[in-house]
Amino acid sequence: xxxxxxxxLVLFLHGSGERGTDNQKQLTHGAKLFLDQTxxxxxxxxxxxxxxxxxIKWTHRLKEKxxxxxxxxxxxxxxxxxxxxxxxxxxVNKIVEEENIDPKRIYIMGLSMGGIGTLEFLYRWPDKYTxxxxxxxxxxPKLVTKYSHVPIWFFHGGKDDxxxxxxxxxxxxxxxxxxxxxxxxxxxxxxxxxxxxxFAEPDLLKWLFSKSK
Length: 213
Fold this sequence. Notes:
The protein is of the alpha/beta class. The protein has helices spanning about 30-35, 35-40, 85-100, 115-125, 165-175, 195-200, 205-210; strands at about 5-15, 45-50, 60-65, 70-75, 100-110, 130-135, 150-155, 185.
């Protein structure tokens, strides 16, 4: 870090498979993107990968199977944030307070459980984040007005059998009514691991870091 220079901050929320206490698994997906030497040179930033414990999630998301065998997701928000979400938010606050962070360029990204978490973080702390990337996530589209000012790039696989694509598309369709900068990319043949293609998008970081309040 250069003295006197401010940096963007990126909060990255991992998926359920990377939960744990080893402070390593959360780097499985996404870390290589930010460790790439070209990206580090072109987009210098402080990137934070908190790890969610194994017995809890970033949100209170519930799911059950319909009679037809389809996943039905519910996104209750009435009981406040989960403890990992609260702690991640407090971590962001602490870093902003203690490091040379540009407050106009604080971003959030997430995949799967973390994609759902990203949308919930925007709902709970709508004035904190400048832009977001949501990969194979989703949430309640009725809550979009709370964070409609935040540009979001959504990614989803057309054959996702873990988080049905409709849950991100419904949020995008609603959010697009308020924010022309938001985008939706569908990979028709991809299953749940659409993050592989999302991270390979040449304009992903360019788009994210171009956003400023």
